[in-house]
Write a structure and sequence with these properties.
By secondary structure, the chain is an all-alpha fold. Helices cover 35% and strands 0% of the residues.
Length: 83
């Protein structure tokens, strides 16, 4: 008996984290991640999920750190969180 080749469907490209995956990721993220709180002269913290999505977009698109769409948050903040 010969085996038949199973067709493997490639995964869809992820540009932003789906809700179900985010539920697994969020609990393991550090609470004291950069940038420092505004009371120390820094910017307001950007949303973790927006920053994470910005990092994914940057890695998938191969664009410069200052080129992701603005809905991911300040490009400098996304860069600091991603390096």
């Amino acid at each position: 008996m010969a085996r038949t080749a199973r067709e493997i469907k490639p995964l869809d490209t992820i540009w932003e984290v789906p809700d179900r995956l985010w539920e697994w990721i969020e609990p393991i993220l550090p609470e004291d991640a950069p940038p420092p709180p505004k009371s120390h002269g820094g910017r307001d913290r950007i949303d973790w999920r927006a920053a994470f999505d910005g990092i994914i977009f940057r890695l998938r698109a191969g664009c410069q750190w200052n080129k992701p769409p603005k809905h991911f948050g300040d490009d400098g903040s996304v860069h600091r969180w991603g390096v």
